[in-house]
């Protein structure tokens, strides 16, 4: 897993945690709806009209003055009609009310959901999108053809395939005498006497190593075996090892097109001798 992919996953997790934090803050510290605020103001005003116990007790001790006991000017003021204080309630428009707690919660939840969904969508594309500049899935150069051939050929007449990690491929020679009678005479998997085999076993995908003693490929997982040019020999594998389309460019370098995989069925007639020595893994029955 690459660093950008790890960062994308961590970003998604942080985004989800941020959405949860937004919800908690909105739920526990929200100011409440404007209706609740108006109810609180009304209750406060009602409580202000009710005299306290202390006021009532003091009022009980002092006798209420009568009109006869007051001077004429004061008595006239007392008998005047009292003015009743009216509390008016003004309805607020939607713009004046603002965003209440429920609306804030709904919007925050929707933003978190769609943000997380988009982040995971981008992460999925990053995982599945093929690389276009180097690496598996693109054209990979294995180097000069002659240098590869020199590395493959051994003094005792055996071969040791050239392994290229960037392409996940084994490069093996295909002689001119073998090519005309093989399954690969008319495709694009052989260039200048070399072919590239995908290291993945076609049975269950295990990486297939090279066995120097038997001069073939032997899967350590379930015992499938292939000769030195990838033709099926034994085991549960359904077909030959897959090959890549290859070419030699103008600079004389061997190019493996890892985005173009060629599968082939089991060869009815084997093109090379196998095994040429002892097996590296236990023999497997077909």
Question: Which labels suit this protein?
Answer:
286 residues; alpha+beta; Rieske Iron-sulfur Protein; four-stranded antiparallel sheet; rod-shaped
Written account of the structure:
With 286 residues, the protein is of the alpha+beta class. The protein folds into 2 domains: 126 residues, no CATH class; 124 residues, Rieske Iron-sulfur Protein (3-layer Sandwich). It is 35% helix and 17% strand. It has 7 helices and 11 strands. The strands form 3 sheets. It has a 4-stranded antiparallel beta sheet with strand order 2-3-5-4, with helices on one face. A 4-stranded antiparallel beta sheet has the order 6-7-8-9, with no helix packed on it. Helix 1 runs antiparallel to helix 6. The longest helix has 28 residues.
Short description:
By secondary structure, the protein is α+β, with helices and mostly antiparallel strands.
Total number of distinct structural domains: 2
Share of helical residues: 25-40%
Could you say which overall geometry the principal axes of the C-alpha atoms support?
rod-shaped
Count of runs of 4 or more consecutive helical residues: 7
Average pLDDT over all residues: 78
The helix/strand order is HHHHHHEHEEEEEEEEEE
Query: Strand share of the residues?
Result: 15-25%
Provide the fold topology.
Layout: H1 3-29, H2 34-49, H3 53-61, H4 72-79, H5 94-97, H6 101-128, E1 139-144, H7 145-152, E2 162-164, E3 169-173, E4 190-191, E5 194-198, E6 210-211, E7 216-218, E8 225-227, E9 232-234, E10 243-248, E11 253-262
Antiparallel strand pairs: 1-11, 2-3, 3-5, 4-5, 6-7, 7-8, 8-9, 10-11
Helix pairs in contact: 1-6
